[in-house]
Amino acid sequence: MRRFVTLAFVPLAIALPAGFAGAALWDLSGLGQPTTREYLLAHPEVLPEAMDVLEQREQARRIEPMRAELEQPFPGAVLGNPRGSVTLVEFSDYACVYCRQSLADVTALIAANPDLRVVIREYPVLHPDSVTAARMALAAAQQGRYQAFHDAMFRLGTPSAETVEAAARAAGVDLARAEAAIARGEFDAQLQANIAMAEVLGITGTPGWVVGDRVLNGAQGQERIGQAIDEARAS
Q: Is residue 63 part of a domain?
């Protein structure tokens, strides 16, 4: 989150002195009252509002060039309505406690929004076994078993060789076929692409969310994500 605040603050820090200087000239001319300085001192609440606007603009600037790629799921790695008109992207790690807690929020949002498509981007950054789980998740997606594996993996807890295999078996994944695809490295390019996208977007941890022109870091709760979905739908 610090990255966004810093980026947002820099243009504001440049703009405010310029605004003060312009206001001083305007005031000396006798044409402008009250001055910008007086207005800001009387209404300091506009500063965080202005920073929020700048942050939103910066987020939109980062998202737009990659939107098509970002919202295009790895085949099968999608929840909700695959043809939904509103897309929520989640960067997720199976070792992340907050991702596990957010599963109920995502399930509720899908139930409340029939037009919602949830694209899961496997983002295994917390533990070496997260990579094992992420590869198996994409192998499950390849076999049409993604959601079953996704739910089972979070239900079984921390990723390990044993829990990944148990989740795959519970989801009905053909393990021999999945392990062969993993051994061929079929999913590594996708995982590398997800990590690169997260870096560009300023995703600083898990879960990370993108909806419309918004990037949200961390567990946000059903209400906050639902509000962002409504904003994206209305835009």
A: no
Which residue range is the domain that position 24 belongs to? 2-44
Report which residue type is found at 171.
A
Q: What is the pLDDT of residue 52?
A: 66
59 and 4 Cβ atoms separated by less than 8 Å: yes
Q: Residue 47 — very low, low, confident or very high, per pLDDT cuts 50/70/90?
A: low
Residue 106 and residue 28 share a domain = no
Q: Distance between CA 195 and CA 155 in Å, rounded?
A: 24
The verdict on 11 and 106 lying in the same domain is: no
> If you write DSSP's letter for every residue of 40-105 in order, what string do you get?
HHH-TTHHHHHHHHHHHHHHHHHHGGGHHHHTSPSTT-EEE-TT-SEEEEEEE-TT-HHHHHHHHH
pLDDT digits (tens, 9 = 90+) for 119-134: 999 999 999 999 999 9
Q: Is residue 59 part of a domain?
A: no
CA–CA separation, 194 and 73 (whole Å): 11
Place of tokens 């639902």: 226
| Cα dihedral: 64, 207, 106, 144 (round 10) | 80
Same domain, 176 and 225: yes
The total number of structural domains in the chain stands at: 2
Strands 78-80 and 214-217, bridge-based pairing: unpaired
Residues counted in the chain: 235
205 against 201, higher pLDDT: 201
Return the percent helix, strand and coil in the chain, to nearest 5. 65, 10, 25
